[in-house]
């Protein structure tokens, strides 16, 4: 399960989870390493013809796949 960074708001006794979801509302898939994310991106390219970019996440510290920038 993907870990989520938590923050505390002033006066709030419990931590609040930062939003970390895809545009369709589903949780993002977290990869533990850049190499794992690159493998998944390559697999998506072969299986579905979708070219995805790999990026490091500032929120969870893991790696995610996203839309490739326009070339």
Structure report:
The protein is α+β, with helices and mostly antiparallel strands and 71 residues long. The protein has a domain at 26-71. The protein is built from 1 helix and 4 strands; from the N terminus they run ββαββ. The chain has one helix spanning 34-48, and strands at 6-7, 16-17, 52-56, 63-67. A two-stranded antiparallel ribbon has the order 1-2. A two-stranded antiparallel sheet has the order 3-4. It is globular and about 30 Å long. The model has no long low-confidence stretch (mean pLDDT 80).
Give a brief rundown of this model.
This protein is of the alpha+beta class. The protein contains one helix and four strands.
Write the topology of this structure.
Elements: E1 6-7, E2 16-17, H1 34-48, E3 52-56, E4 63-67
Antiparallel strand pairs: 1-2, 3-4
- In which order are the strands of the major sheet placed? 1-2
Strand content: 15-25%
Q: State the separation between the terminal residues, measured CA to CA.
A: 33 Å
- How many DSSP helices? 1
Binned, the helix content reads: 10-25%
Largest sheet: 2 strands, antiparallel
SS-derived structural category: alpha+beta
What is the averaged pLDDT score? 80
Strand element count? 4
Order of secondary-structure elements: EEHEE
Q: Give the uncertain stretches in residue-range form.
A: none
How large, in whole angstroms, is the Cα Rg? 15 Å
- The backbone outline, from C-alpha atoms, is globular
Oligomer: single chain
């Amino acid at each position: 399960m993907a870990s989520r960074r938590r923050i505390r708001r002033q006066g709030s006794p419990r931590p609040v989870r930062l939003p970390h979801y895809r545009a369709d509302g589903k949780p993002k898939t977290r990869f533990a390493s850049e190499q794992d994310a690159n493998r998944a991106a390559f697999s998506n390219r072969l299986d579905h013809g979708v070219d995805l970019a790999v990026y490091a996440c500032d929120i969870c510290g893991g790696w995610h796949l996203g839309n490739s920038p326009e070339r």
